[in-house]
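Lecture 7, part B: from sequences to assemblies.

Below are the input chains for today's worked example.
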Amino acid sequence: MANFAIDAVKDMTYDAIVIGSGISGGWAAKELTEKGLKTLVLERGKDVRHIKDYPTTSMNPWEFPHRGQLPFQVKQQNPIVSKCYAFYEGTEHFFVKDAEHPYVQEKPFDWIRGYQVGGKSLLWARQTQRWSDFDFEGPARDGFAVDWPIRYKDLAPWYSYVEKFAGISGNKDGIPQLPDGEFLPAHEMNCVESHFQAQVAKKYKDRQVIMGRCAHITKPQPIHLEQGRAQCQHRTICERGCPFGGYFSSNASTLPWAAKTGNMTLRPDSVVHSIIYDEQKGKATGVRVIDANTKEELEFYARIIFVNAAALNTNLILLNSTSNRFQQGLGNDNGLMGKYVAFHNYRARISADYDGDLDSTTDGRRPNSPYIPRFRNVHKQETDFLRGYAAGFNANRKSHADQSGLGGDLKASLLNPKLGGWSVGSHMMGETIPKESNYVALDKSKKDAFGMPQLKISMDYDENDEKMVKDYFEQMTEMFTHAGFTNIRTSDSKQAPGLDIHEMGGVRMGKDPKTSLLNEWNQLHACKNVFVTDGACMTSTATQNPSLTYMALTARAVDHAVSEMKKMNL
Amino acid sequence: MAWAVVGLAVLPACDFGSKKATAKAVGTSLSPSQEELLAEVVDTIIPATDTPGAKELNVHSFVQQMVTDCYEPKVQENLVKGLDTVEELADKSFSKSFGACTGEERIEVLRKMENAKEEEQKEFYSLVKGLTVRGYMNSEYVMTNLVKYEAIPGHYYGCVPVNEKSLS
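Predicted structure of the full complex, as structure tokens:
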């Protein structure tokens, strides 16, 4: 019997455990297995195999019983996730339904989640911009949060490393606050977008309109073909999963790559309860898992643990990992875990018409759009609010049919639509300032279906965000007016935090263990064999879509972890 | 396989009731004659010409399914009520059933509902018309035969002269 017990523990033991299989967990899996580590990847949701488990990927519009619309009952039962732009009849199976994983909204927060192998990497908007030192130096310069323990030079080679593998398209624009990367050919702008680009360049020395940099393979390189991925086919139904692997997802890219090494064990339906801390050894030894199907509690062991459960769930797991040594959460000696969470402000939109370029239109579809890098407070503080915003921009021209008729007239009109004028639009992506008063914590009384404490979320906008919305409207109105756009309309959705799906922080990186949870290598200061490389590690939010930075931080942290293991420091 | 070794501890029982709770859709059960009437209504909105009309493309079934699944009970009730009104108006104006009316007479009946004082009639009109247009334009026949539908464009060209672009 004794031997059986030893064997049992041996069977549950790996070199490394990765919690989560989304965009950063997938990268951790790839890097660890490539470096020869036997790696267990735990995913709380169901398995989603590339192509095989994309049930709607090849469906035509008429094959959806409700042509994309969700049944009344689904919307009624899911008021939160129904607010997400990407949640529809073709994608609903990839989103967490409201009742599946309840949480406490101390303040309104729309928590959008994807519990499955691949996580939200199947669903993301695929925009991938690098940070610059204007972002990493932000907190220190402007006096908020804590100083980042790293600078651009630390991450630059890792950006290059992940970009080449993931496949990022874009132009080398030479903009200091948005460094260039390893780009595949960029998507085209249309005539009106080029017009706006030229008009903005003419009027403002410090403002640029560029083509968005995005994780689409516009020209496959050998490394992409080796992954079994092909050129993006411009279907623009990415969120259903792409059978071509045209955009980057864990399912199409990092996870199959990790599987090919023979070193990965992927275990779906595994809800991580907590991380096991061994006081004698002074380090984490494994994780407790609840099997989502059988509800059994299992333990798995490893020398190092990567926590990539998605920003807020990473907070939840660590806060729930209590021991005699860490009574308020693993590595949470300073009590700051869960605090200083932040997000991106996506409330503001502006739209207009354009009467020019009527002799031109577009052909095909584009899974991307132009981008306006942050231009406010970049080189110095120049407004009455801190930091700034980036913006999306696009122009499009649609055909319209007069639908006032009935009978033969209506039919003829529907089948002979007239090309309308150009419409232009932009949305704001504002940096929010992490504050102690914005936090997540464990609710003392409420539990979820797995007996886990529910997460209490308390995040809100502040005066800085309001000023920024106002400035975005003013500046964009000025830029639109200058470009000759007319009928300019602004709208503030007042949407709650969360719908941006860019929640970050709570387990922030920093130089000082007194004021941060993670060091410059994403290791918990107080428990060095636990690494956090998803959104939870973010010290500040900048304005860029964050996923590319999580990928780079993850690859860098794995490289450090494995070299430390070789030196027997871990 | 590591997870073959199980059974270290089973967590305390939890409440899974909420996860399984499902309510039944109310459902719009139209009688066969109401269904036939709905088919005549959608075929009045988009009739057969040298190409099939909405009835032949089974758009009335789509309208019925949409109202059943995607709208609140009040709207479902108004569909039935509106169909009754269609018959009443046909009888009042032309002393015959909607089905026996000419194409022009049918359009007149629907126009009366569009311009009616009663909100319910207007709502019936815009609901059925909107769904008919949607069901027709998104039908396999129309998408594959009558309009330019590109499932896989394979490209995006930003600046194309208007006169060279085939307008759907």
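Note for the exam: Chain A touches chain B through 65 residues (CB under 8 Å). Keep this in mind when comparing with the next example.
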